[in-house]
Every structure is written in C-alpha cells, then in structure tokens.
Amino acid sequence: MPTPSKLNKKELTKFKVLIENELDEIRKNLRKTEENIKKSPRDDAGDLSAYSIHLADQGTDTNETEKLLLFREKTEKYFYKLEESLNKIKSGTFGICAGCGKPISKERLKAVLCASYCLKCKQERQNSLE
Ligand SMILES: [Zn+2]
Predict the structure, then answer these.
(1) Which of 6, 18, 104, 107 has the alpha carbon at shortest distance from 122?
(2) How far does residue 50's CA lie from ligand 1's centre (Å)?
(3) Is residue 36 part of a domain?
(4) What's the pLDDT at 63?
(5) How far is the CA of 14 from the centre of ligand 1 (A)?
(6) Is residue 117 part of a domain?
(7) At what angle do helices 64-91 and 9-38 cross, to 10 degrees?
(8) How many A from CA of 47 to the centre of ligand 1?
(9) CA of 114 to the centre of ligand 1 (A)
C-alpha cells in the first residue's frame, strides 16, 4: 500500500472545480425539491431517484412529501460539507484526515469529495458508534 501524499496545487485546483460543479448541481436539485415540496406531493418526485443520494432504502412507510423533506435535509447537509471542503482548500487543510492528521488517499477523495477522515479513521468511528 503506497502512503497517500499531500495534494499538490494542481490537484487541489482539480478538486476545487469538482466540488464547485457538485455544489451547482446540488443547488439545482434543492431548487427542484423545493418546488416539488410546494406542489402536490404526488406530483413528479420520480426524477429525484436519478440523483446520487438514494432514498429507496429508507423504508416504504414515508409518503412523498416526507421523502422530499428528508431528501432536502440530506442534500443540505451534503451541501454544507462540500462548502466546508472548499474552505479547507482555501485554508490548505483539504485532504488531511481530521482524526489522525495524515493525508487522505486521493482515490477516497475522488469518491467522497467531502471526506474529512481517512478510511481507517472512518471505520474506527463507525465501529465506535455501534
Ligand atoms: Zn485518519
């Protein structure tokens, strides 16, 4: 296993663009969700399933409006985390694990743009919660 190294300026710029694109996407999605919440709950909430945060596994009891509210909540949280990542890029702490202070692998950052922990710390945290 190669030791992850800190991101250079070029890589940071690439991540910055990725995050900004993602934020734009989320803004659009939030706007659409907001409209759907205002509209009749049964009206075309279907296209939300195309988005990367799936609600399909959340149980079948929730009605459409609840699903939309839940989706909005999750999306907003994700939005704030991404904004945090942008701030980290500015302050030079992006890609550094908040747990152990070591660089997070680039593969993980690409998969999870807002990752604040390396895989090892993330797993340890999950274990400690259960
Ligand atoms: Zn760590």
Answers:
(1) 104
(2) 32
(3) yes
(4) 83
(5) 22
(6) no
(7) 160
(8) 37
(9) 14
Residue that has been written with the tokens 């945090």 in this structure: 84
Residue type, 92: G
- Cα-to-chain-centroid distance, residue 62: 23
Global pTM reads 0.74
Range(s) of the domain holding residue 62: 9-93
Question: Are the beta carbons of 109 and 15 closer than 8 angstroms?
Answer: yes
CA–centroid distance, 97 to ligand 1, in Å, is: 5
The tens place of each residue's pLDDT in the chain, 130 residues long, gives 556 778 999 999 999 999 999 999 999 999 999 999 898 555 454 555 444 445 555 445 558 888 999 999 999 999 999 999 999 999 999 999 999 999 999 999 999 999 999 999 999 988 875 5
Q: By three-state DSSP, how is residue 100 classified?
A: coil
Total domains present in the chain: 1
Q: How many residues does the chain have?
A: 130
**Cα torsion at 29, 30, 33, 34 (round to 10°)?**
-150
